[in-house]
Design brief:
Layout (H helix, E strand, L loop, with lengths): L23 H14 L3 H15 L5 E5 L5 H6 L8 E6 L2 H13 L6 E5 L11 E7 L7 H14 E14 L3 H17 L4 H11 L6 E2 H11 L3 E8 L2 E7 L2
């Protein structure tokens, strides 16, 4: 297995910080980036795999929207029936290339396919028992989120579930400021410098648009999901499960 490359994308000072892009540079270090940037990332992955194992139905599909380098699929694989088909969707060819290589390296045996699609354009899914949006919905333009969730809802089987993990806003400005402060302290503990934190924040400013937890909940409920609950919360990060009846 290849050693995980360390994230140094924002280590050097840039004359101009461009919008964040999941291109070759980010894809090459993404596994380290997400592990050091997302609180309890390993535990979130374990929880997602645990819940997927309970909802995934034999001879159906599990979709991962924003599948990135395929880490989630590898975590799901041991607990899901071999007849379940994995479908990964990402708009970054570089991420999908990394994903294909990783799945091949780990010898994934089940049927799977990887598609390069922009979720902002909507999506058609079929016979899904589980759909994952792990740190993905936040990158979809707000005007397109209702349509995407509606597309997912239509393609889910009865009793299927949608798992959403997101960076979120605090419910008021005081708590939001505190949560952001605690988050940057976590990044410092994980080895990021002040320059790295500042430059990445600037790069994400126009790309990552978080909602409040209640806004995400209302989005899921108005789409038609019968049961919506929070399964993870850490300051400005949240995980939610929505079940279609």
């Amino acid at each position: 297995m290849q050693e995980r490359a360390r994230d140094q994308v924002f280590r050097a000072e840039k004359e101009e910080v461009d919008d964040f892009h999941f291109g070759q540079e980010v894809a090459g270090v993404f596994d380290d980036m997400v592990t050091r940037s997302v609180p309890f990332y390993v535990e979130i992955q374990r929880m997602v795999a645990e819940m997927t194992a309970d909802f995934a139905v034999p001879d159906t599909a599990v979709y991962d929207f924003g599948c990135s380098t395929g880490t989630t699929f590898l975590n799901l694989d041991p607990g899901v029936h071999p007849s379940v088909r994995f479908v990964g969707i990402d708009d970054s060819p570089e991420m999908l290339q990394k994903c294909r290589a990783k799945l091949a390296e780990h010898g994934l045996k089940r049927p799977y396919e990887l598609l390069c699609l922009d979720l902002n354009d909507g999506v058609r899914i079929q016979d899904a028992s589980v759909v994952l949006l792990v740190l993905t919905l936040q990158f979809i333009r707000p005007l397109n989120r209702d349509r995407l969730i509606a597309d997912i809802f239509r393609g889910l089987r009865p009793n299927g579930c949608l798992l959403v993990v997101e960076k979120v806003l605090g419910e008021d400005s005081l708590l939001n400021r505190l949560f952001i402060k605690y988050y940057y302290e976590l990044k410092r503990r994980n080895g990021y410098s002040e320059l790295e934190i500042t430059q990445k924040r600037e790069a994400l400013e126009n790309v990552l648009v978080p909602y409040k937890v209640l806004e995400n909940r209302e989005l899921l409920l108005r789409t038609g999901f019968r049961f919506v609950d929070v399964f993870f919360k850490w300051y400005n990060f949240s995980g939610m499960i929505a079940v279609k009846q």
